[in-house]
Task: inverse folding
């Protein structure tokens, strides 16, 4: 019976059901980001209190049995000391990288970084494991808004090395020839703090 439906384009769907499927769904920035981020394999932890950040950070470290973090941000170094884990400022180490970011891109779930976090290193040359601390005020609709935000926030000293993590599943192959030799796949945890 389904063969005849395909051949003669017969459908058992009602016109209202067809119309409902055609309608576009508009998500808020945070919902769109979380949906796209999770689709790419990211691990998302939402925090409404500073204490929750510490609890989640402890759980991530314990779950993965890590004994050291790479961290260059003074505020995050202080945060990691309260979790009682050793930190190292050398980005070349193989320990997980605990960092901030510039923006969270809602329309594709990417996380935008710059030399403020990465210094002069390429994402591909850094650790396979990232823990990113971000706030809801860093959510933007698309990459263009993210770049505008960087330009606005850093008027006197615009950072370089602007790049993003696009995949949150290690060893995922991309067919995009523009990314050849620059694999930005990372096992990534996002600690998102509600600051609005």
Result:
């Amino acid at each position: 019976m389904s063969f005849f439906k395909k051949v003669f384009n017969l459908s058992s769907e009602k016109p209202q059901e067809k119309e409902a499927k055609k309608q576009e769904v508009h998500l808020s920035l945070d919902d769109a980001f979380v949906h796209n981020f999770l689709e790419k394999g990211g691990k998302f932890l939402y925090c409404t209190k500073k204490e929750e950040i510490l609890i989640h950070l402890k759980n991530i470290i314990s779950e993965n049995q890590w004994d050291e973090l790479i961290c260059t941000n003074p505020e995050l170094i202080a945060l990691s000391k309260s979790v009682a884990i050793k930190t190292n400022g050398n980005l070349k180490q193989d320990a997980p990288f605990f960092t901030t970011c510039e923006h969270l891109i809602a329309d594709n779930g990417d996380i935008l970084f710059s030399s403020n976090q990465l210094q002069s290193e390429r994402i591909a040359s850094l650790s396979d494991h990232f823990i990113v601390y971000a706030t809801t005020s860093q959510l933007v609709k698309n990459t263009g808004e993210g770049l505008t935000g960087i330009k606005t926030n850093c008027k006197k000293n615009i950072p370089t090395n602007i790049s993003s993590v696009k995949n949150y599943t290690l060893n995922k192959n991309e067919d995009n020839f523009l990314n050849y030799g620059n694999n930005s796949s990372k096992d990534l945890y996002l600690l998102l703090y509600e600051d609005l």
